[in-house]
Amino acid sequence: MLRAFRVHYSGARMSLSIEDFDYELPPALIAQHPSAVRSASRLLRLSGDSLSDHLFSDLPQMLSPGDLLVFNDTRVIRARLFGRKETGGRIEVLIERLLPENEALAQVHAGRAAKAGSTLALDGGLRLRVLGREGEFYRLRFPGEALELLERHGSVPLPPYITHAPEAEDESRYQTVYARAPGAVAAPTAGLHFDEALLAALAARGVPFAYVTLHVGAGTFQPVRVKELALHRMHGERYEIPEETAAAIEAARRRGGKIVAVGTTTVRCLEASGAAAGSGETDLFITPGFDFRVVDRLVTNFHLPKSTLLVLVSAFAGIEPIRAAYRHAVAHRYRFFSYGDAMLIDKMPR
User: Fold this and answer.
1) For the CA atoms of 313, 314, 317, 321, what is the dihedral angle to 10 degrees?
2) Angle between helices 308-317 and 264-273 (to 10 degrees)
3) Which residues pair with 342 in a beta bridge?
4) 282, 272 in Cβ contact below 8 A?
5) Phi and psi at residue 29, in whole multiples of 5°?
């Protein structure tokens, strides 16, 4: 297990309300389907107060040889299940985390709370035993190998703002091309813009790659239910940093390269651990005033109003620059959220 790493804030932590991170978004700008080609999405660059419009395929020209791109290689599992309770009520199960011994933590949406000892009868003949409650989640037991049964009976866990049922397109496009380690129930969406041609162009540019694994939980879509940010508690997520990734980050620092995180999950993983090799779990909530000690630049999608992810990018680039960037994105009709467009953000100078 990874040793504890102390995170830092510059001076006193700011007293902020989640209302400070709201904005108006026309529903028509919420992307319901991905772009025809992954790297053909748009890219808004934010450096200090400067904004410029690009295509995502322009990314190699915005990075320097010797910079390091760090990706999250988690793989999305078929985590959503449907069925009926023994009493006949319709239910939906969304797996949050796979556990040993074919058990899992899950959200269960039904007319009434499922009782410990009851059985959830799901579509396709799958039956899950309810073992009890753990906070907001249920602990469930599969009758066999959980991943195999999810692959057979589950569906792609598209986020709630994507209104269509999963289609054949979503099987491949709600997954990064470099996904390796199964366990996520939401995609690390900044990585969805990278295709093989773009990765080859980046490699030709002299930009090496490194990988971490952080299994994104369903909690990433949970709203902040308190007004004051200091009172919010993040959901925990498991992560792993390989020895070779820690070594690649140290080598990039020695040669003067920038550490470019692909996605907010990669940021949380690297900053929570100090980029030290090992595995662990983080509930780090990054808010303005946080002292970023690993990541220099960030590739990220556009995030929901009043979300912890919008708070994170505001901590990284500054509240006012992010507000200006989002106003620009709305005015220029960028596409938002998981299947939308992206940003390349430089860290705000301290």
Assistant:
1) 130
2) 70
3) 43, 301
4) yes
5) -90, -5
Can you tell me whether residue 282 is helix, strand or coil? strand
- On whether the CB atoms of residues 178 and 211 are closer than 8 A, the answer is yes
Residues 6+ apart with CB under 8 A from 211: 70, 71, 72, 73, 178, 180, 242, 245
Per-residue pLDDT of the chain (350 residues; tens, 9 = 90+): 444 455 666 555 567 999 999 999 999 999 999 999 999 999 999 999 999 999 999 999 999 999 999 999 999 999 999 997 667 778 999 999 999 999 999 999 987 888 999 999 999 999 999 999 998 899 999 999 999 999 999 999 999 999 999 999 999 999 999 999 999 999 999 999 999 999 999 999 999 999 999 999 877 667 788 999 989 988 889 999 999 999 999 999 999 999 999 999 999 999 999 999 999 999 999 999 999 999 999 999 999 999 999 999 999 999 999 999 999 999 999 999 999 999 999 999 87
88: how many CB neighbours lie within 10 A of its CB? Answer: 8
Of residues 271, 298, 297, the one with CA closest to residue 282: 271
